[in-house]
Each structure stands twice: as C-alpha cells, then as structure tokens.
Amino acid sequence: MDRWIAAVQESSLRRGAAPLAVDLGYGASPWTAVELHHRLRRVNPAVRVLGLEIDPARVAAAQPHAAPPGLTFRRGGFEVPVPGGGQATVIRAANVLRQYDEDEVAAAWALLRSRLAPDGLLVEGTCDEIGRRHAWVALGPEGPRSLTLAARLAVLERPSDLAERLPKALIHRNVPGEPVHAFLADLDRAWAAAAPYAAFGARQRWARAVGAVAADWPLVRGREREGEITVRWDAVAPR
Predict the structure, then answer these.
(1) Exposed (0-12), middle (13-18) or buried (19+): which is 168, by Cβ within 10 Å?
(2) Inter-residue contact 30 to 51 (CB < 8 Å)
(3) Between helices 202-213 and 179-193, what is the axis angle to 10°?
(4) Strand duo 116-127 + 88-94: pairing
(5) How many CB atoms are located within 10 Å of the residue 6 CB?
(6) For all residues of the chain together, what is the average pLDDT?
(7) How confident is the model at residue 129 (pLDDT cuts 50, 70, 90)?
(8) Residue 104 region by backbone torsions, left for phi larger than 0, else alpha for psi between -120 and 50, else beta
C-alpha cells in the first residue's frame, strides 16, 4: 500500500513546502506510521507524517518513536485534527473501517475527504496480518476513484482469495449479482487460463491474467509487476 501511495501520489507529494500524510488508526504500535514516514521521505525529504489514534495510551506509547524529523503522533479520529488546521496530501486508513457497520462507511469517507487538499488522496482498505493480501479504495475530494487488489504473488492460489480483505464498502458484496463478485470471478478465470505462464514466474502469470481482464474491465494499467490490479470504482461499486 505504501509503495502504491508513493507511486501514484508522487507529483502531489513533491509539490509544496511540507506535504502532510496521515496514518489514521496506526494501532497498538506505531510501526505503520514509522514505515510510511520512511517510504514517503524517499519521495520528498520534507514530507510530514502524522500518526493518529483515538486511544490516549497508544498516543503516549508512540511518542518515543517521534524522533525522526517530520514524524508526530497525536490523538484523533475521522475528524483528522491537523495542527494549524491544514489539509492532508494523503490520508491512509488501513484496517480501520472494518470495525464499523457498512452503513457507516459513506459518512466516514465524506468526513475524511473533507480533510484532503485539492490534490489529496484518501486510501482506505484492509490487509492481512503480514501484508500478503491487500485491498483498498482510492478516493479524491470528489469521491471514490478506484479499487486496488494487491498480493504477494508467490503464495497466491487464486485472486478471489483477496475477497476476504475487501474494504468494508465491498466485503459483504462478494455475492452473485454484485459487480465486485463478477470482477473477481473473471480474474480467477484469467489466472487459471494463464497457468502455463507460471513457468516464467508468478509475475508473468499475473501480468497475463491482468491483460486478459483488461479486455472487459476498465483497469488502470502499469503496476502489474508489483502484484497489483486497479479497476475504476464505478465498475465495481455496490448496486
């Protein structure tokens, strides 16, 4: 997820004196914020990263890790309390909304989007415990733009295994009649058909499968070798 953010938001992160990225709900340990800071500072050494947690004890526990320049921690939630009232170039909310009901997603998205800069991006999604399976929605100030699925290809049996990590807005929609179910089914078929390419490596097989799916779905191409597939949100949005 961090690699994807650094790639797609590179131009926005390079603009401005000190662009801000927010890690919302970093959890019991601050490592996701620390890692995001490390990753985005490669794009722009002036990037600031703000880690937010609603639990004061977690904020206090994170303070010793705020030593690198531009990394801070404070208490906050969906309102994203930015010091000085600024706006965020990136808000990342990983494994946060999975704790909420599906009918609460739209309001949370709207509040988070209101804290974005005009060229800002909200990345909201879910991953497994050791980062092998990811799924996230990218949203601009205007609303959702795309769904990305990402996997460690070497241990991927079939693409629909990622369904268990779909964002909250889609996790209950992987049923016949819903677009995301059809998308995953087509991806599974393309993955199976591309099995002969596994002899050249999992990345070659994945690239072949993504190319086949692109004939019927509006994909955003270019990062297949990273084990990703990105489709326009309007093609998979809940009915």
Answers:
(1) buried
(2) yes
(3) 130
(4) parallel
(5) 20
(6) 96
(7) confident
(8) alpha
